[in-house]
Amino acid sequence: MASVAGIVEDNKKIRDLIQRYLDMQDDLSCPVAVDSVEEMLEYLEEHPGPDVILMDIQLPGMSGIKGIGIIKEKYPDIEIIMLTVYHDSHKIFKALRAGASGYLLKHTSLPEIKESILKLLDGGAPMSPQIARKVITHFQEETPKKDPDSNLTPREHDIVNGLVDGLSYKMIADRYDISIDTVRAHIRNIYKKLHVNSKAEVIAKSLKGEI
Amino acid sequence: MASVAGIVEDNKKIRDLIQRYLDMQDDLSCPVAVDSVEEMLEYLEEHPGPDVILMDIQLPGMSGIKGIGIIKEKYPDIEIIMLTVYHDSHKIFKALRAGASGYLLKHTSLPEIKESILKLLDGGAPMSPQIARKVITHFQEETPKKDPDSNLTPREHDIVNGLVDGLSYKMIADRYDISIDTVRAHIRNIYKKLHVNSKAEVIAKSLKGEI
DNA sequence: GGCTCCCTAACATGATCATGTGATTGCCGG
DNA sequence: CCGGCAATCACATGATCATGTTAGGGAGCC
User: Fold this and answer.
1) CB of B187 nearer than 7 A to strand D
2) Surface-to-core class of residue A163, CB atoms within 10 Å of its CB (0-12 exposed, 13-18 middle, 19+ buried)
3) pTM above 0.70, yes or no
4) Chain B residues closer than 8 Å to A96 by CB
5) Which residues carry this modification: 4-aspartylphosphate (chains A, B) (predicted)?
6) Hey, is A83 helix, strand or coil?
7) What are phi and psi of B159, to 5 degrees?
8) Across the interface, do B123 and A142 touch by the CB < 8 Å criterion?
9) Contact between chains at B129 and A142 (C-beta distance less than 8 A)
10) Nearest nucleotide by C1' from A154 CA?
11) What is the DSSP string of chain B?
């Protein structure tokens, strides 16, 4: 059974080229190719949705990234592949977070685009190699919680956890069955070690993984 | 110029098969195929490192994931592709965070493995489709801060940001050029809306993305 | 014109926090 | 055996916070 694709792309030449190529494939059809998210939404109102939509980012009217969110919300079963010249991390991540399932750069060849669509519908996540690399690099940076040499003693960590839980000195004292003055003493030391001087800053540092 | 690959894989049959295949390619050589991270480390002590290492996870002795970290630390220029049967998110993310640049499942065909190596050395990040999908799905889940109906007004968001920055009422008042009593009033309203009653809880909620 | 909501502001009071100073106990390592 | 450090506790004081009450001006809606 042939799968159905759609295109949102404001460059008519590129749009027509891709549409004609996809539509001539045995296992694909491409009945809709428009130049804005708004038009695609109108189309979707009156027609059964395609399985996958190729989407540009820079578009007249609504941006492709905003469009992802709207389409995904109304038609969660439609898969979206970004097809754009943008390869900066910010746009890539925004698109993926918005719900895109693939991200291709515009120099991708027609056969590769076709392969990507099929791969996506088969449960994959087609990405241009450079994009894939940025994504996994982001992953690696996501873990800077190496061990910022907290210097905090075990007990001090307990106290910090209490603060993060939003407890007052008294409640922390009760939780660990110690005196409120002891809590005070620990917190004094924590403040010194972290170079802060309020509960708020300790909580912030902790939740940001800096402890 | 032919690129050099290495293999760490404890199943001798698979190891030999892959090594023979890669070694017979014009653009690749595969001089080293061992069955543990420890052996690979010994090899690296005495030989120029390969460009890329295919690494299993389940290994005698040190795990492949731990091995990534050690190899990457001593030889940061060596790229590592995981080649394993494990497709659970936990192991995938651990491997990527440890420094792997690609992740293939073991049913990958020999030509695909070769393609993956070349793609990696060309700046890509080869992943089996299912893996790629899990990675980008993780990305999407990373943003559950959709909009938990904060109900907070713009000004209230300002105040929350001030709190998150560890500011006192006075400092917030100065930052936005309003009276400290106004700050108090806003915070009162914020507390009501969020059902909390301390700065600490607001900061915690905010940093956890619950606002 | 009423109504609701946001932003602003003031006054007041009891609770909690930040910080200083000091002390005791127990464990670890030179 | 003694010094260093973690953990415990105490007393004290000024700063800051949490909360109640009240209220005027402006934007938007029916």
Assistant:
1) yes
2) buried
3) no
4) 136, 139-140
5) 56
6) strand
7) -60, -45
8) no
9) no
10) D6
11) --EEEEEE-S-HHHHHHHHHHHHTSTTEEEEEEESSHHHHHHHHHHSPPPSEEEE-SS-SSS-HHHHHHHHHHH-TT-EEEEEES---HHHHHHHHHHT-SEEEETT--HHHHHHHHHHHHTT---B-HHHHHHHHHHHHHT---S-------HHHHHHHHHHHTT--HHHHHHHHT--HHHHHHHHHHHHHHHT--SHHHHHHHHHTT--
The nucleotide whose C1' lies nearest the CA of B172 is D16
* Local mean pLDDT, 10-residue blocks, chain B (211 residues): 91 94 94 93 90 92 87 92 86 89 92 93 89 86 55 86 89 91 93 89 82 65
Residue for token pair 């009593």: B181
> What stretch(es) of chain B map to CATH 3.40.50.2300?
3-139
Structure tokens of A14? 């590129």
Can you give the C-alpha Rg of chain A in angstroms?
26
Fold of A3-139: Rossmann fold (3.40.50)
For B142-189, the pLDDT digits (tens) are 655 444 556 788 889 889 989 988 889 999 999 999 999 999 999 999
A198 and B168 within 8 Å at the Cβ level: the answer is yes
Q: How far apart are CA A97 and CA B141, in angstroms?
A: 8
Can you name the residues that pair with B144 across neighbouring β-strands? Answer: none
Which residues 148-177 of chain A have a CB within 8 Å of chain B? 163-168
Fold of B143-207: Arc Repressor Mutant, subunit A (1.10.10)
Contacts of B127 in chain A (CB under 8 A): 125, 132, 136
Least Cα distance to B190 among B149, B148, B152, B162 occurs for B152
Please judge whether B122 and A136 are an interchain contact, meaning their C-beta atoms are less than 8 angstroms apart. no
CB contact at 8 A, A204 and B203: yes
pLDDT tens digits along A172-194:
999 889 999 999 999 999 998 88
Residues of chain A with CATH 1.10.10.10: 143-207
B167 touches strand C (CB under 7 A): no
Q: Residue A166 CB closer than 7 angstroms to strand C?
A: no
